[in-house]
Input
Amino acid sequence: MTVKRALLLVVAAGLLLTGCGDDSASETTTTAAEATTVRVYFLRDGKVWPVSRDVESVGNLPDTALQALRLGPTEEEKAIGLETEVPEDEDAELSTAALAQVVYTMTQSAGSDSAQVAGTTYERADFEEQTPSVLVESPLSFEDVSGPVVATGTANTFEANFQYELLGADGEVIDENFVTATSGTGTRGTFEFTTADVDDIAALVVFESSAEDGSRIHEVEIPLNTTS
Output
């Protein structure tokens, strides 16, 4: 079944996509011509990675969010390695990676655990191979932030541990710490951590330390903009 027909299934199922960023603000009920913010999931090194889109919520949000996804990443997002396998053509077949993008985009609202695409029900867990070991869902790339930063997401790392660093405008580390998710070592868990109250934040970096030699693995840098 095509993406367009899959969208009709989503609408029929009544899935509601909500805003991104702080989860406390994510439950957004919209009306005609009201602007809202959604997450769309592109690919970074073959793994899903979210960015935000401000959209007009005329009609239904699943349709609007998937239309934004189909437009692909911006030039700024391409510069940090984001790409997409979701075709602009609604009638084109979806690769596994593209299907992961669609399912993640469709299940971003709290309590939305599954989605129907082409008559098949999928969950995010069906795409573990297309999910990074540490998936930061807030803050998003190029988001305006101020210290302290509250970061949330999911992780599947050795013994549920990973590390983060905050980088300043000159690239120096201005805060760092260890994080332990709710589960790991083959089971994806959730995490939430709060950084130190620092200024001039330029990026958040997350990574694992190799169990073999302690080297950094699965490192991802998320560029951020500091608000005054």
In short: DSSP finds four helices and 14 strands in the chain. Residues 1-32 have pLDDT under 50 and may be disordered.
